[in-house]
Specification:
The complex is a heterotrimer.
Chain A (H helix, E strand, L loop, with lengths): L20 H37 L1 E2 L2 E2 L2 H5 L3 H33 L6 H15 L2 H12 L4 H10 L13 H26 L2 H9 L4 H30 L2 H6 L7 H10 L6 H34 L1
Antiparallel strand pairs in A: 1-2
Helix pairs in contact in A: 1-12, 3-7, 3-9, 4-7, 7-9, 7-12, 8-9, 9-12, 11-12
Chain B lengths: L3 H35 L5 H5 L2 H7 L1 H34 L5 H9 L6 H19 L7 H7 L1 H14 L2 H10 L4 H12 L1 H16 L3 H5 L5 H11 L1 H30 L3
Helix pairs in contact in B: 1-14, 3-4, 4-7, 4-8, 4-11, 4-13, 8-11, 9-10, 11-14, 13-14
Chain C lengths: L5 E10 L2 E11 L4 E5 L6 H9 L6 E6 L2 E2 L10 E4 L11 H11 L7 H8 L15 H14 L4 E5 L7 H18 L2 E6 L2 H7 L2 E6 L2 E6 L1 H6 L4 H6 L4 E8 L2 E4 L2 E4 L9 E6 L4 E5 L5 E8 L3 E8 L2 E8 L11 E6 L5 E2 L2
Parallel strand pairs in C: 3-8, 3-9, 6-7, 7-8
Antiparallel strand pairs in C: 1-2, 1-4, 4-5, 9-10, 11-12, 11-14, 12-13, 14-20, 15-19, 16-17, 16-19, 17-18
The chains are: A mainly alpha, B mainly alpha, C alpha+beta.
């Protein structure tokens, strides 16, 4: 029965420069020099590439043009965006639901216990696990001669690919993406679950509420912003992913990142380079909008469950 | 007494272990499958640990492995050189600049690698012209890619100590700015710097997008190429690379736990 | 509304090898406020949580109004509960928090929730959210929420211990006022003896899962049942004494005992500072060692030979008792407890 203080340590008052005012101008200029290498580097390798994409998206042979951006309205590009959005949304929702269940299973365990620490650490690793190696992991598992495929065929007589080789198409991508989406959800959703105080459940019970009422009226509404925000983050994560799809998809360029690859590597059609930039800009816009939503929802979560 | 609470705790335990078992199978199955798959050809693993034979049999793979190791090292050094002094300096002398630095460091999170590579193409035309087309020049792009993760690690380390008071105390004792940075602040954020370095290595070893689209051969590009000719070998190398990344990141998380423990 | 009788009978509860409740029994009269007082780990919170249904008991009966409710889950026990802190739902306003329990019971709330907020003095802040309220205001809302459902029993689990000293005293007095007004049987758990003495009709002092004494505040203070109670409630001097003929001689004064004692003859008596008077006397056996000014009353430490004695004197008398002053130590003949 310890006394819990509900106030965090008082924030240290912002330290003020104690140098005499007169010296400040010179000192400030000198100090700024210290940040120059970093800023210059970031300008060259981050800001300029970003500007190249933004400017390039509106650049044609004779200067400014809308034609690149207008080309995004073409059927095959719209289809690619639609498929990208669908793939990201499906894997985000599946990842969010499964990840939330897994995270909840974890918070019912002892907070500092070994089980929880092990699963959190493993999630941190698996959430970073993507790209070519993950694609090959699934080829080894449920590829045409994969471990599970062979086992099912030889022992149970089940043919995974009776309806076509779906692993190398969108359904396969969805399954493989789930593999890193679920652990990512565990990592981003766990802090919100930890913010749920046991008193809320006990208060609900003592006020006469059932378990169902607790989930629908207290825990559900409290966790909704965090769940939604995390789902958005998962969406952005899947939407940006390239390597897994590049290694897995064998035919065509069904999603936007692969379309961009196509635009970058093909030199057949003149002006394709700038179409790639327009698509890249489209991706940035989607990701930026989604991440803004995520940030806003995170803020709400911090106020309720911080 | 009915033991209502005990019954609920038991239900919860059953739920917990059911979920964790299902999740465990889903996440371990591909790893087990990789091991089984790569062991189908007897010689695969013995070839993988025999560097001269490997280099002779798969020159592209050998080149990719060397390139990725070199990139990991160079990117770590570049990241530390760029980020550590700047982060400390901004906290000490330019607090007004901190929001800008933080924004720039986190910006790559909203710019997918596939987008960055589109914009990097012209920049790399200049890099090729000025210092040549070596695979190791990817370091410049990778330093940007790891920026958000490395920055968070280092910033967390700096937040945990009172940089300003430390610096004022040292300056009061007659230390110059270089001494303050190297001998006072740096030793206190050692573990944060180590975290940033681990993350950088793990991310660089897994990078595919930029290398592939700038036509360089690193580990992941080599594995992808190998997948078309020798599936067994490519899966074996994937597993090896994965285990290495696992070990690195697990060390990192265990290390992080230990660092937090005394507080 | 009148309160009901609450009877906890022979409760047992172990966590591993620790017996949080070890045959704990307590009978609360209708409308009474009982404070459970004890050091941390004595089982007082466990007792409250078992009564609330938030914790299983291994054995024993819980009777409320003569009905055994041991088999009922927490949500059907009809108890209002106030926690130490953070128990308000952060996504609901103060008013919505108070309405919450009424809505769960589908009870037409009318303006009951608003009236409860007025009762606890938060009427003006009904639309505010928990993060916009101070700690003390949050606890007021929590109290209103617990009382809104007209519970049979009100349970307060260290409701003041997360608050500042000043707010604590203010809210303590107000809880007492409101409890008297609504007349609900109330169990109040605290580790703060001053709080327990100030608020309760009866104080139950607990140790190691058992009740050591259950009595009115004055009795617990003035006639502690044993040395543990004397030591835990209020300050006590440990003074060497001699047991003889049902009384104890301490520093030359014969003092009655709170309970018959055996053993001895050398014993340690627990004597309150306010039962000791210190008078300047050139021939006195004591010397003033130190003084502490505490406002209306002050404390003087006196050395009598090897023994240090702490006495309480009024503020104005402190002036004549500077360090090294020779003094006489007088003990008032009130009953004392002996250390076992």
């Amino acid at each position: 029965m310890t006394v819990v203080s509900d106030r965090p340590d008082p924030p240290a008052s912002p330290p003020r420069a104690r140098a005499p005012r007169r010296r400040l101008g010179g000192a400030r200029a000198g100090s700024l020099l210290g940040a120059v290498p970093f800023l210059a580097y970031v300008a060259v390798f981050l800001i300029i590439p970003t500007l190249v994409v933004v400017v390039g998206a509106f650049a044609g042979d004779g200067g400014f043009t809308w034609s690149n951006v207008a080309a995004l309205g073409e059927g095959y590009i719209l289809d690619a965006f639609a498929r990208s959005v669908a793939l990201s949304a499906v894997t985000a929702v599946i990842g969010a639901v499964l990840g939330a269940v897994l995270a909840y299973a974890l918070v019912t365990a002892r907070p500092g216990g070994p089980l929880r620490r092990a699963v959190t650490a493993a999630s941190g690793v698996l959430a970073q696990f993507g790209g070519v190696t993950l694609a090959f992991a699934f080829v080894a598992t449920i590829g045409l001669s994969g471990f599970v495929t062979v086992f099912l065929r030889d022992h149970l007589g089940v043919d995974l690919y009776a309806g076509g080789v779906w692993l190398f198409e969108l359904p396969g991508l969805a399954l493989v993406y789930t593999y890193f989406q679920v652990p990512l959800m565990v990592i981003v959703f766990l802090p919100a679950l930890d913010g749920i105080r046991p008193q809320w459940r006990e208060a609900t019970e003592s006020l006469g509420g059932s378990t169902w009422q607790y989930w629908t009226r207290v825990a559900g509404p409290l966790l909704a912003p965090a769940f939604l925000g995390s789902t958005l983050l998962l969406f952005a994560n899947a939407f940006s992913a390239y390597a897994t799809a590049a290694a897995l998809v064998s035919q065509g360029n069904p999603i936007v990142p692969l379309q961009i690859r196509g635009a970058l590597t093909s030199e057949v059609v003149l002006g394709q380079q700038n179409l790639g930039k327009a698509m890249a800009l489209g991706m940035v816009v989607v990701v930026a909008v989604v991440m803004t939503g995520y940030t806003l929802l995170q803020r709400r979560t911090a106020r309720w469950l911080g | 007494m009915a033991g209502l609470r005990a019954r609920r705790a038991r239900r919860q335990r059953v739920f917990r272990w059911t979920v964790l078992t299902v999740a465990g199978v889903f996440f371990l199955l591909p790893l087990a499958a990789m091991l089984e798959f790569s062991s189908r050809d007897g010689g695969t693993w013995s070839l993988l640990v025999d560097w001269p034979r490997l280099a002779a049999a798969y020159p592209d793979l050998a080149e990719g492995i060397l390139a990725s190791l070199g990139l990991a090292l160079l990117t770590t050094l570049l990241m530390l050189a760029l980020l550590v002094p700047t982060a400390i300096w901004v906290r000490l002398r330019l607090p007004g600049l901190r929001p800008l630095v933080e924004f720039l460091c986190l910006l790559p999170l909203t710019i997918p690698a596939i987008v960055l590579v589109v914009g990097l193409a012209p920049v790399y035309a200049w890099v090729n012209y000025l210092i040549g087309g070596s695979t190791l020049t990817l370091t410049f792009a990778y330093a940007i890619l790891v920026l958000p993760y490395a920055y968070r690690a280092i910033d967390a380390g700096l937040s945990a100590i009172d940089v300003r008071t430390l610096a004022e105390a040292a300056r009061g004792l007659g230390a110059g700015w270089t001494t303050v940075m190297v001998r006072v602040v740096l030793p206190n954020i050692r573990s944060a710097v180590l975290s940033a370095a681990f993350l950088t290595v793990a991310l660089v070893l897994g990078e595919f997008t930029i290398a592939s689209l700038l036509n360089r051969t690193n580990l992941q590009v080599a594995i992808n190429l190998l997948g078309k000719s020798s599936a067994t070998m490519s899966v074996a190398v994937s597993l090896a690379a994965l285990v290495l990344a696992f070990v690195l990141l697990l060390l990192l998380s265990l290390f992080g736990e230990k660092r937090k423990a005394p507080n | 509304m009148t309160g009901v009788e609450v009877h906890l009978d022979g409760l047992r509860r172990s966590f591993g090898a620790v017996h949080a409740l070890d045959g704990f029994s307590l009978r609360m009269k209708p409308g009474e406020l009982v404070a459970l007082l004890g050091p941390s780990g004595c089982g007082k919170t466990t007792a409250l949580r078992v009564l609330a249904g938030l914790e299983d008991a291994d054995a024993g009966r819980i009777l409320v109004g003569g009905r055994d409710i041991g088999g009922l889950p927490a949500n059907r026990r009809d108890m209002g509960m106030v926690f130490q802190a953070y128990s308000l739902f952060p996504h609901l306003s103060a008013l919505e928090n108070v309405q919450f329990g009424l809505k769960l019971r589908r009870r037409a709330s009318g303006d009951r929730a608003a009236r409860m907020l007025d009762l606890v003095g938060i009427g003006a802040h009904a639309a505010r959210y928990p993060h916009q309220l101070s700690g003390g205001q949050q606890q007021r809302v929590a109290l209103a929420r617990a009382l809104a459902i007209e519970p049979q029993v009100l349970l307060l689990d260290e409701p003041l211990s997360a608050l500042d000293a000043k707010v604590r005293v203010q809210l303590r007095d107000e809880i007492r006022r409101i409890q008297t007004e609504v007349g609900t049987t109330t169990l109040f758990v605290t580790h703060d003896q001053e709080e327990a003495l100030a608020i309760a009709d009866r104080v139950g002092v607990m140790r190691a899962g058992r009740l050591e004494q259950l009595a009115g505040p004055a009795e617990v203070y003035l006639r502690p049942a044993n040395a543990f109670v004397a030591d835990f409630v209020g300050l006590s001097n440990r003074l060497p004494g001699r047991l003889d003929d049902g009384a104890v001689s301490v520093l030359g004064t014969r003092l009655p005992l709170v309970a018959p004692a055996t053993g001895g003859p050398e014993v340690t008596a627990l004597v309150r500072p306010e039962s000791i008077d210190v008078v300047p006397d050139p021939d006195g056996a004591g010397r003033v060692v130190s003084t502490t000014f505490l406002g209306p009353t002050s404390r003087v430490t006196v050395a009598v030979g090897e023994t240090l004695v702490v006495a309480q004197v009024t503020g104005e008398r402190l002036a004549g008792l500077s360090v090294h002053t020779p003094v006489r130590v007088d003990l008032r003949p009130v009953p004392v407890a002996l250390e076992s």
